[in-house]
Amino acid sequence: MEISVLGLNHRTAPVELRERLAFQDQRLPEALESVRREIGVPECVILSTCNRVELYTLLPERNGQKSKLTDFLSRFHDIEPRLLSDHTYWHLQPDSVRHLFRVTAGLDSMVVGESEILGQVRDAYAKAVSHGTVGGVFHRLFQTALRAGKDVRSRTRVGQGAVSVSSVAVDLSRRIFRTFSSKTILILGAGQMAEATITCLKGQGVRSILVANRTPEAAVPLAQAVGGQVVPFTELDAALIQADIIIGSTAADHYLLTRLQVQQAMGLRRQRPLFLIDISVPRNLDPQIGQLENVYLYDIDDLQGIASSNLQMRLNETESCAQIIEQQMDGFLSRVAGHGELVEP
Amino acid sequence: MIELHAVIIFVSYAAFLVAVFSGLAFLVQERRLKRKDPRVLSTAMIPLELLDRINLVSVVVGFSLFTLGMFHAAFLARREWGSYFTTDPKELASLLTWAAYAAVLGLRWKLGLRGRRVVMVSVVSFGLVLFTFIGVEYWFGGKHVFF
Q1: Nearest CA-CA distance, residue B65 and chain A, Å
Q2: B38 touching chain A per CB within 8 A
């Protein structure tokens, strides 16, 4: 018996293909059952996320299984088999085991070290268990993979540091503010660009959101989308007193806020700290604003710079992650092969 | 009664020391945020807003106790030495210390200052606490013989 994986991911297949191949929750039992019955494998787990679709199977023999599984995929999703062949990968032991461990640890993810995949693997395993397609080998395989994934995250820094502009902005704001429920965000501009950052800040508990735009009508869709309130540009100075976090995201080619404006507002707000995030190019907020006391100004380059240095730090960790994975993999293969259930590694 | 005096003053010094620690943490973090130093995110730190709050509360507690301790001391001085105020070096140094922390609170409450500069004053003022506590006897002697 041998563990195999047939799959495709964000590197091998375009999103149009991935979304057609994704397994919907309600059809998953049917799919697991078909793989087991039609292809004749005793154990099977299907991992289906927005970035990957993978069929893990325990093969009784090696011959012809790859094409049978590819045929199953194309038949199940009604896609021509030749469309699949260029985009799929096929691994046998020990690469299949290594692949699962790497996926679970987040090393194969689009954003290296992201943690969501661990839950998705756990979920895929649990669903296969509940549909009866997991036996002795896959129980041990997936439990070891999940343990290895957790191990990698706790023993290395691969999952640390924000790697997107909006999560860096949130991390920075948490170094400034103690609580968020009483804070107000002011958005300059009606574009959707700021939406990700606003959503992240709302996740921290911000309740009050103001959207200011030259033409107030244009700000209504964004205000509705984020649950905010539109303020006319003429009342910007009053909004400055109220706001704690300001996000600049307009297409204006000049500064919308000057140092003097913010300086005056700071006196009126009794020097309550102010965090300004300028995600627009050209910049909307005069860089000199950042020199004022209790005012912290970050532009898109600053945020991007932190995000990419964090990503680099994660990539630097992959070497030590790989070592942990190799150890866990060797341990798993010798344990399971020792029971005579698998081919010798 | 002398013991009570020492206890009150001691606790006020401890509060001023808390202001020093929270103040230093504030200054380090504030500088990193301003300079966009990546270490601001790599080390676990308390938010600036909270550090500023701890700094203020500890100065208020320290200053209140110190004021109480000085009044108490004045009555003790009247009983022991016959006068509320005797220009003993320690008494003069205490007045200076009291004035420094009164200034910190004045800057915050009257001028509405917050953040780096006022935190810095609270940290530097601790030099006067050390001077009052240890330095005075060392350099000037005086009637305070307990420490």
Answers
A1: 27
A2: yes
Q: Find chain B residues with C-beta within 8 A of A176's C-beta.
A: 33, 47-49
| pTM of the predicted structure, to 2 decimals | 0.78
Please tell me which of the candidates B41, B42, B49 has its beta carbon nearest to residue A273: B49
Mark yes or no for CB contact A296/B115 under 8 Å. no
Whether residues A61 and A126 fall in one domain: yes
| Partner residues linked to A59 by β-bridges | A2
Nearest residue, CB atoms, A294 vs list B40, B45, B115: B115
Please report residues of A whose CB lies closer than 8 A to that of B40: 172, 175
pLDDT digits (tens, 9 = 90+) for B2-27: 888 889 999 999 999 999 999 999 99
What SS3 class is residue A112? coil
Flag whether residue B115 sits within 8 Å of chain A, measured between CB atoms: yes
Last residue of a domain, one of A122, A155, A188: A155
Q: Are B142 and A297 spatial neighbours (Cβ–Cβ below 8 Å)?
A: no
The reply to whether A321 belongs to the active site is: no
Q: Which of A44, A50, A200, A321 is catalytic?
A: A50
Which residue spans within chain A are E strands per DSSP?
A: 2-9, 43-48, 52-59, 89-92, 184-188, 208-213, 229-232, 245-248, 274-278, 295-299
Q: What is the pLDDT along chain B (147 residues), one digit of tens a residue?
A: 788 888 999 999 999 999 999 999 999 999 999 999 878 887 778 999 999 999 999 999 999 999 999 999 888 888 888 888 877 888 888 999 999 999 999 999 998 899 999 999 999 999 999 988 887 877 776 666 654
Domain extent at residue A97? 2-155
Would A312 be classed as within a structural domain? no
Nearest to A39 by CA among A61, A8, A7: A61
Taking the mean position of all CA atoms in its chain, how far away is CA B30?
21
Total domain count for chain A?
Answer: 2
